[in-house]
Amino acid sequence: MTDLSGAVDILVVDDLDVTFKGRRRNQKVRAVEGVGFTVREGETFGVIGESGSGKSTLGRCIVCLVPPSGGRVLHFGKDPFALSASELRRHRRGFQIIFQDPNAALDPRMTILESVREPLDVAGIGTAQERRVKALEMLDRVALAPELALRYPHEISGGQKQRANIARALVLEPSLIVCDEVVAALDVSIQADMLNLFAKLQREFSLTYVFISHDLRVVAHVSDRVAVMYCGKLMELAPAEDLMAAPLHPYSQALLSAEPEPQPAHLRNKKRIILKGEIPSPLNPPSGCRFHTRCPIAVAECATREPEWREVLPGRWAACHFAGAPVPAVSDATVEVLRP
Ligand SMILES: Nc1ncnc2c1ncn2[C@@H]1O[C@H](COP(=O)(O)OP(=O)(O)OP(=O)(O)O)[C@@H](O)[C@H]1O
Ligand code: SF4
Ligand SMILES: [Mg+2]
């Protein structure tokens, strides 16, 4: 998509499906279904949802690690999946991903410096000396002390390893980085430092982030806008502040209400909604609205008619028959209601 100034969006996800084969014959895992949004350059776009909702699959498809089964991903208006294998390898330098497990991308037999330099070696960028200098510069930018450069992954902490992973992603000068649960494995005491580092690097390198987490507070803290996923689909998309202040979708409301203190003002002194029931399987997603088996305000129609994905308020999208309208009474059969 192009804006009035003629700038092309860095990322468009258009009616995206990602389906995997299940273990049994003819079984399909609909990990992502009909997901669509646009990310602007320089933005941090948050993705939140419970385990198995399809966040990582979406993130992996955005950086071309899994192909779409339907719909499109566009990078600067172009379909990367239409590129030849060698063109795609080159193109992918601009679209990186960092995973939750700090060990995932670090070879235990390589020093930190070698691991950070490796993407440059593989891409054949510059001379060996230039690659070494660039890798050392990136370690400095992520505040890893030079004496750690010659250590092996098992000789440094989880936080230091995650900094090395960031340096490894940055060394190819990407435009966009998918951050998939990047602080989830780290000690709470260093999570804030790491989030500050991501913010600093974003300013210094003009980065765009897709920031995936199951932790609403983390996502809301770092993101400009947030997409809420449930069982492969988007439930809500809103500016982070609006989502935290007044979520429109019952699932977002339940996620927010389940947060430990401090609660946002409008939820203080109100009942807390703890969702009951299993998260449905993407092997056999519920009919109608996917959230209907756990929704506290579901009515009979919700099981048969899928809600439209619509702009309920300017810039605020939701998929619920009742978003922005008077809501039915809360059913205690689907939620546990905790009084303050
Ligand atoms: N390669 C695969 N083959 C088959 N099924 C897969 C594959 N990758 C993911 N899935 C399934 O797709 C669904 C979505 O998984 P995904 O990892 O994207 O969820 P998630 O939101 O990232 O969860 P978590 O918060 O636990 O990381 C899950 O049911 C998962 O089992
Ligand atoms: S459409 Fe129905 S089941 Fe789905 S979120 Fe709205 S009220 Fe709940
Ligand atoms: Mg995941």
* Model regions low in confidence, pLDDT < 50 over at least 5 residues: none
Amino- and carboxy-terminal Cα gap:
46 Å
* Helical stretch tally: 9
The structural domain count equals 2
What class would the helix/strand composition place it in?
A: alpha/beta
Proportion of residues in helical segments: 25-40%
CATH topology of the largest domain: Rossmann fold
What is bound: which ligands?
Answer: adenosine-5'-triphosphate, iron/sulfur cluster, magnesium ion
How much of the sequence lies in strands comes to: 15-25%
Name of the CATH superfamily of the largest domain: P-loop containing nucleotide triphosphate hydrolases
Largest sheet: 8 strands, mixed
Could you explain the architecture of this structure?
The protein has 340 residues and is an alpha/beta fold. The protein has 2 domains: 223 residues, 3-Layer(aba) Sandwich (Rossmann fold), CATH 3.40.50; 94 residues, no CATH class. Helices cover 27% and strands 23% of the residues. An 8-stranded mixed sheet has the order 5-6-7-3-8-9-12-11, sandwiched between helices. The chain starts with 10 loop residues before the first strand and ends with a strand. It binds adenosine-5'-triphosphate, iron/sulfur cluster and magnesium ion. The site of magnesium ion has 3 residues, from helix 1.
